[in-house]
Structure formats: C-alpha cells, structure tokens
Design goal:
The protein is α/β, with parallel strands linked by helices. The chain contains 22 helices and 29 strands. Among the domains are: 158 residues, Isoleucyl-tRNA Synthetase, Domain 1 (Orthogonal Bundle); 140 residues, Nucleic acid-binding proteins (OB fold (Dihydrolipoamide Acetyltransferase, E2P), Beta Barrel). The structure holds ligand ME8.
C-alpha cells in the first residue's frame, strides 16, 4: 500500500487555537482523509511548538510553570482538534523527550558537517515571530506582521552556514518544480534565494526555556530550528530508526504563507547539512481573514473555532472552509456568509436532497429502491464526470474544486427530481418502472456524492451513506466506491433533517427559527454557545423535518419539495402558503438582539405576535401603523423566548438590509395575498 506522511505547522501555545490556525488543520485533515480514501497508508502529524519566549512569558503571567502550562494547553489544543473531527495520527510536543533527543542529534550532525560556528549577533528580534529581523524587514521600525517594536539583541550565538546551501537550494527548486506550491510562493522563495542568503543564528543565549545546544548548555537552540525538527522527531529520528525509515521523507508539509521561508530555505538546508532527504512538497496556504485583517491572536482579530463549529456542528464549518476558500489564497470568514452557505449548500441542497430521497423511497417503495430498467443515464454521467474531476482536483490540493465537483452531483440530483417529478409518476401505475429507476438513480447519486464528501464532512457523509443503504464500516470506503453502481437493491432510511434551514436571530433575514441539526458537535461549550446565540429549537420533539418551515426540508414527496437552484414548483405548492396583509399595532426591539423586533399585528380576524429580523433596517416607531405581508400559516416558533406566530416578508439581499414588502394603496388587514 502506498504511504503518505503529512504534517501541519506546530502551533505556538501562548493562546488557544483560533479559526485561522484551525483552518490549516481542517484543510490538512481534508487532505489526510482524501489520501486514506484514495488508498494511501496515511500518517498525519500535528503538534505544539512550546519553546517560544511568548509561551514562557504567558505561563509566567499566569503564575504557572511553563511545562505545566504547556501540558494544559496540549489538552486544550487536542480537544479543539478532536471537536473539529481532525483525524490526526500523532501529536508531537517540542518538550517531549523524543523530540529533545532528535533535535540534539540533528544539531550534532550539522556541527559535524562543519556548518555550525560560534559568533555574535547584534540586531532586531521579533518575539511574536520568533525571528531575527533586518532593518529592511521593518515598517516604520515595527514588525509588519505584529505591528510591535522588535527587541534589540546583542548576544553570543551559534550560527548555521545557510549561505553555503544557496546553490543547492536553487538546484533543488529547479529539479523539483512542485517542491513548493502554489506557484506564487515558489516565486517568492526563488527571488529570495536569487538575492543571496546570509548565515543565521541558531541559538539564543541566557535563556533556560528551550533545548540546550549539545556542547554548550548555556545556550538554547533557536526555537524555529527546534520546531522544524519536529517533522522528523515525530517519526522517530534519533529514537526509532525503523519508524523513521518507514515515514521519512514527508510527502507534504501544510503551512501558512508567512512561514514558507523557514520551511523552504532553512529547513531543507538543515536537512542537506545533516545528510537527510528533503520533504517532497510544501503547500503554503493563504490566511483566513476576519473583516479584512489576518485572523491573529496578537492582532486580536479572532474567531473561536469551537464557537464556529458549535453553530451547526463541525461539518458545516469544514465545508465552508474547504469549499468557499481557494486553498492557497486568502479567504474571509463572516458569520453571515457562513450561515448563508449553510442554508444554501446544506439545508436547501444536500440536506433537502437526502430528506426527499428518504421520504420518497419510503412513500413509494417501502424504503427499498431497485433499478426499474432503462435509466436515461443522465445522473450516472454527471456522477462519473464529477468523481473523475474530484480526484484530479483533490490530487492537486484544489480542495475547493474537489468540493464543488461533489456538489455538482447534488445539484444534478435535485434538478433531476424537479424535472422527472416522481410524485407525478407515482400517480400513474404505468410509470412504476420509471419511478423505480428515478428513485434508484437519485439514491445512487446521493451515495456517490457522500463518498466524495467523506474527507470534507466526515460525520454527515457517513450518516448519509448509512441512509442510502451502506452497511459496512465507513473507514473501509475507498475512492473506487464512488464508481456508479447501476445494479442492486438499496434499503433507504428516513431520518431527522440533517441541516434544518435557519435564519439566525442575528442574521438579518426573515425569521425562521433554528432547529438543531441532526449532526452536531458534541463536547464542552455547546450550552454556552446556545446561550450566546439567541435562537431556540422550534419544537421539543426533535423532529427537525417537521420543524423546518416553508418546506425547505420537505420530506413528504406527495407535495414535492422545492428544489435547490432554479427548479420549479407547482401552483399547488404556492397555494400552500397562506400570505396575508397585516397592520402593525406595536413594535419594540427584542432585548439583547441587534436584529430582532417584536411586533403585534392586526390580521383582520385576530391579533398576532411576530418576531422579525428587521431591527437594523427599521426603527420600531416607524413600523407602527405600517401595512405588511406575513406568512399566516407558519408553525409558531420561539425566538429569544418570544413565540412568533408567522413570518414577515421582506426583500433580503445577500449581505444587505431587508426592505419590507408593502402596497401602493390602502389594503385592509386580513386580505389574502396570492
Ligand atoms: O507559526 N489563517 O505557529 P503559529 C491561516 N509555531 N493560517 C494561519 C492564520 C490565519 N489567520 N494564523 C496563523 C507558528 N496561521 C510556528 C510554526 S512549524 C515548524 C512552526 C497558521 O501558532 C500559520 O501560518 O503562529 C502557521 O502555519 C500555523 O497557523 C501556526 O501558527
């Protein structure tokens, strides 16, 4: 079986993980899971970088021993990775004995090669970067990344003859055009190499926190040199030669674009000096931004990954980060966009499809679907094309395109349902075979899409596979299982809506309450998150499909569900909506909510209370006396503890503020809108 050794950067532990660092781990996990799916014996290693001065200072600030602090942070970090379903095989900490032994061994070998010499360093040092800086690196005297003034150092250091390796590095880049991807990063490093290399300090004097230089306990090894070596100590360098032999060289280091110089200049030169093989490839991903700024603990622009995962469960977050951000480029995270994509990709599209397949299979075929003969082959063709493109894109780490390919199958299946109208076929016994085939083809599409989505949304894809009749261990599923299987019988299971459609209380759209997705993260913090986000389950039954409004999670195929995309609905569907004119009697802001307004309205025959997400667009006073349109027959739902009996209609542009639907002239309350 081919092997694949994959690593991420190891994190500084001076604060908890944020969504930017989590982005890297999730992307790497998608790759690791994809490689397993593709049949590789994959070894996926992550870890913590503990010998940083920032870590030492943080521990001291908290009155803790540095090692005890690091122990605590290791628990916190691994807990976050576990909650995000990151499937790491090993977690290395730089304070571990296996690491210390390997680091000292490597430095000894570099010394034996004549590449380490004693000298004095005088210059700038940014503790947040843990990097020696030259005057030309600073902007107005500040570190451009952390916007802080670096320290001025004068100390005895050991130096590494990095300059000696410039030509060898250039030759390596030349011979291995894919050593560093994407190309923009490769070009940056090539320019750097072409401009020449200076030797670098590889030790710090007068510090106790770190790994001692082998022959000089008064000096500790520079934290970056210490950290880079994790990639070999994690697989046994200096402690377990057989494991090292098995795993090294790494197939891929996944790191952020800010640290490519360390990984593609210093690290390979260190390995060359020690006579070890170089990693095969380095992927320098982009930054996750929040409001246009790099998400960064030192800049304070961070989102808590657990909070983001607890919003809908880890899978929607994983999908957002994989599908919405071009892997290799910078990308934005906004709560609004995250919620929009949840609704579009999951609630309306994939979740709706799975619900419909379950409901139709049960209603028309008692839960068992079989081919009925004479498939038109359209879905099979889409699935084949998409699966081929998926593998091609994922092999090139174009994760967003891989995700998009899988969703092409989902889109096609939804459109196919809208086009073939199984509910109409069911009304005529002469179409029984055709109906069987349609149901089978749609179920098979769902199965293929779920196989392809396993690396990205592992929990949900496993659940979807179970619902479309997969019975084996999902760990054994391989990429070849994405081949279209036009034969056999499938037992299709109905279940709760996987992702009930939401319009969150803070989401500015018309108010549809959040139901709990069928698949969510477990673990600590969930209750806290629910308190912070003023949305409540619509009903206590857990029957999310019935809780979902306006048929977004429609499960009963007799009245067809509105499909995703541009699929059409019938007049019967439209007539299910009881829309009425109402007049606003009172309006008040809902406490602790930016967007919600509580309205009491006159609907002719009665008064109703509504909660609407329009507070950012309308002052409550301006609403009183206004004529609006509401959905009259929507199930009551609680928002911020207030029961809302209907939904206000408004034009709601993506990312914009809502505008209420109204009339030119006077229309009496209670009038039906149709
Ligand atoms: O750099 N978006 O640790 P770190 C995307 N210990 N990635 C981000 C990010 C963002 N907003 N912020 C950080 C270190 N990262 C060193 C690595 S490896 C031998 C030593 C990425 O905790 C960052 O680019 O500052 C890096 O790859 C990783 O998170 C850890 O960052």
């Amino acid at each position: 079986m081919p092997t694949f050794y994959l690593t991420t950067a190891i994190d500084y532990v001076n604060s908890r993980p944020h969504l930017g660092t989590a982005y890297e781990k999730i992307a790497a996990d998608v790759i690791a899971r994809y490689k397993r799916l593709a049949g590789f014996d994959t070894h996926f290693v992550m870890g913590n970088d503990e010998h940083s001065q920032n870590v030492f200072r943080r521990a001291r600030e908290l009155g803790e021993e540095p090692l005890a602090y690091c122990d605590r942070m290791a628990v916190e970090f691994t807990e976050v990775w576990r909650s995000l379903d990151v499937s790491l095989d090993d977690f290395i900490r730089t304070t571990e004995p296996r690491h210390r032994t390997g680091v000292q061994e490597l430095v000894r070998r570099m010394t034996a090669a004549g590449d380490i010499y004693e000298g004095h360093y005088e210059g700038w040092y940014c503790v947040s970067c843990e990097a020696f800086k030259q005057e030309k690196d600073l902007v107005e005297g500040l570190c451009p990344i952390h916007r802080t003034r670096p320290d001025w150092l004068r100390e005895k250091n050991y130096f590494f003859r990095l300059s000696k390796y410039r030509d060898a590095l250039l030759a390596h880049f030349e011979a291995h055009p894919d050593f560093l991807v994407p190309e923009i990063r490769r070009n940056e490093i090539l320019r750097l190499l072409e401009s020449g290399l200076d030797d670098i300090s590889v030790s710090r004097a007068g510090q106790a926190w770190g790994i001692a230089m082998p022959e000089d306990p008064a000096s500790v090894i520079y934290v970056w040199v210490d950290a880079l070596i994790n990639y070999i100590t994690a697989v046994g360098y200096g402690t377990d030669p057989a494991a090292f032999e098995r795993h090294w060289p790494a197939d891929l280091h996944v790191i952020g674009k800010d640290i490519t110089r360390f990984h593609c200049v210093i690290w390979p030169a260190m390995l060359m000096s020690a006579g070890l093989a170089l990693p095969r490839q380095v992927f320098g991903h982009g930054w996750l931004h929040l409001k246009g700024e790099k998400m960064s603990k030192s800049l304070g622009t961070i989102v808590d990954p657990l909070e983001a995962a607890q919003r809908f469960g880890p899978d929607p977050l994983r999908l957002y980060l994989t599908k919405e951000i071009t892997f290799g480029s910078d990308g934005d995270f906004t709560w609004d966009r995250y919620e929009d994509r949840y609704n579009v990709d999951l609630a309306n599209n994939l979740g709706n499809l799975v619900s419909r397949v379950g409901a139709m299979a049960e209603k028309y075929r008692d839960g068992v679907v079989r081919p009925g003969g004479a498939s038109d082959g359209r879905l099979a063709e889409t699935a084949r094309e998409a699966a081929g493109s998926y593998a091609h894109q994922m092999d090139a780490f174009a994760l967003e395109r891989g995700a998009a390919a899988a969703f092409r199958i989902v889109d096609a299946a939804n459109e196919y349902i809208a086009g073939t109208e199984p509910w109409a076929l069911a009304r005529d016994a002469s179409h029984a075979d055709r109906l069987s085939q349609v149901l089978f083809d749609v179920a098979e599409s769902v199965r293929v899409a779920a196989v392809l989505l396993l690396p990205i949304i592992p929990r949900s894809a496993a659940e979807i596979l179970r619902r479309v009749g997969h019975t084996g261990d999902v760990q054994d599923v391989r990429l070849r299982d994405a081949d279209w299987r036009g034969q056999g019988e499938r037992r299709i299971l109905k279940g709760d809506a996987l992702w009930p459609r939401i319009v969150a209380a803070e989401g500015a759209r018309n108010e549809v309450p959040v139901s709990r997705p069928a698949i969510v993260a477990g673990g600590a913090g969930r209750q806290e998150r629910q308190r912070n986000h003023p949305v409540e389950q619509q009903n206590g039954s857990g029957d999310a499909a019935s809780a979902a409004p306006a048929a977004a999670q429609e499960a009963a195929p007799a009245a067809p569900a509105p499909a995703a995309g541009n699929a059409q609905i019938t007049i019967d569907d439209v007539m299910k909506l009881d829309l009425r004119v109402a007049k606003v009697l009172t309006a008040e802001k809902v406490p602790n909510s930016r967007k919600l307004v509580k309205l009491s309205v006159d609907v002719g025959s009665e008064q109703r209370t509504l909660v609407a997400g329009i507070a950012e667009a309308y002052e409550p006073d301006t609403l009183v006396g206004r004529t609006i349109v509401m959905v009259f027959n929507l199930k009551p739902a609680k928002l911020m503890g207030i029961e809302s009996n209907g939904m206000v209609l408004a034009a709601s542009p993506d990312g914009g503020t809502p505008t209420l639907v109204g009339f030119e002239g006077e229309v009496p309350p209670g009038t039906r809108v149709r």
